[in-house]
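Good morning,

Attaching, inline, the backbone tokens for the sequence recovery test we're adding to the shared suite. The designed sequence is right after.
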């Protein structure tokens, strides 16, 4: 794969930034693509731009504002509270069709730039109940993309079976732990690095980091 080209679905968050470093280690050329769907925090796009610029990576920002019109939720509407799903319901942060559309358009971009590989940071272990983060969905979409464009894309999900502590470990193994910790945006309240500490994303991130750092200290 070292001579191949990859497109990374990139939000500027912990998971996608870790995947970006993962791709840089494995592929000769890496292109990042970020989607603007009028998400709650424009800082997310700025964060992705800054990271791509610092790493010297070709970066595309695609307009997906139609998704905002179709999918009102806590990530597209400031008046909707961020909260976990209860009694089998999906979290208020679930954006219907987001990964389906993002990975599909990443495939279109990959076909234009001559990339065979598509990398995304979806994860079934810590997937928060999102159905479009499941391994079965990714495998199904991989087949569909290949059939739709008569290509042989390979969708990579480096984090699929990792919990947050193991994701931090991967970043550390890639010599990127401090970079990911200090320069990424995971917080639902739009605070870079360690975030607000109160929203579900921040709590998950911090719990994983604390768990990993305590394990590393023991070693």
């Amino acid at each position: 794969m070292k001579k191949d080209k990859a497109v990374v679905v990139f939000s500027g968050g912990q998971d996608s930034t870790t995947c970006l470093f993962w791709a840089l280690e494995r592929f000769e050329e890496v292109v990042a693509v970020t989607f603007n769907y009028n998400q709650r925090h424009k800082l997310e796009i700025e964060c992705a731009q800054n990271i791509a610029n610092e790493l010297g990576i070709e970066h595309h920002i695609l307009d997906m504002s139609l998704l905002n019109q179709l999918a009102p939720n806590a990530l597209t509407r400031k008046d909707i509270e961020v909260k976990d799903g209860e009694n089998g319901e999906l979290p208020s942060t679930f954006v219907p069709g987001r990964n389906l559309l993002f990975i599909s358009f990443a495939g279109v971009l990959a076909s234009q730039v001559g990339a065979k590989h598509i990398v995304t940071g979806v994860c079934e272990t810590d997937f928060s109940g999102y159905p479009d983060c499941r391994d079965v969905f990714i495998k199904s979409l991989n087949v569909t993309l290949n059939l739709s464009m008569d290509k042989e894309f390979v969708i990579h999900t480096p984090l699929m079976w990792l919990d947050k502590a193991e994701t931090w470990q991967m970043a550390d193994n890639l010599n990127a732990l401090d970079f990911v910790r200090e320069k990424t945006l995971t917080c639902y309240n739009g605070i870079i690095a360690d975030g607000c500490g109160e929203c579900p994303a921040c709590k998950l991130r911090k719990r994983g980091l604390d768990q990993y750092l305590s394990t590393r200290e023991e070693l």
